[in-house]
Specification:
The protein starts with a helix and ends in a 26-residue tail after the last helix. It is of the alpha+beta class. Helices cover 30% and strands 25% of the residues. A four-stranded antiparallel β-sheet has the order 1-2-3-4. The chain has two helices and four strands; from the N terminus they run αββββα.
Length: 102
């Protein structure tokens, strides 16, 4: 019986960790002009969305500058505790990050 409880607890912990990681997985964000960038969500604070590119550059963008779909997603995501410590390295928020040309 103890083994079953431990296995059940382990499954719950692994499932929770997987769901949290999926929230902060890199994705393509789109602004209201159709421009796209692949980045990881860090947080939403005071009407600004903080995202980080794979190159490590952190951008803060006004929430209303994102597509309606991405605005709703940003409102539903939880802040990334592991990335929030890097916020002092913010990039110029006036420039939309660009995806590399394939």
């Amino acid at each position: 019986m103890k083994t079953f409880r431990l296995v059940s607890l382990a499954c719950c912990v692994l499932t929770s960790a997987t769901l949290l990681a999926a929230d902060n997985a890199p994705r393509v964000w789109t602004d209201n002009q159709g421009r796209k960038v692949e980045a990881t969500f860090i947080k939403l604070e005071n009407g600004a969305v903080y995202i980080q590119t794979a190159a490590g550059v952190i951008f803060n963008l006004p929430l209303d500058r994102l597509s309606l779909e991405d605005q709703e997603l940003a409102k539903s995501l939880k802040p990334s505790a592991t990335l929030m410590g890097q916020l002092p390295a913010l990039a110029d928020s006036a420039r939309w990050p660009r995806l590399p040309h394939a």
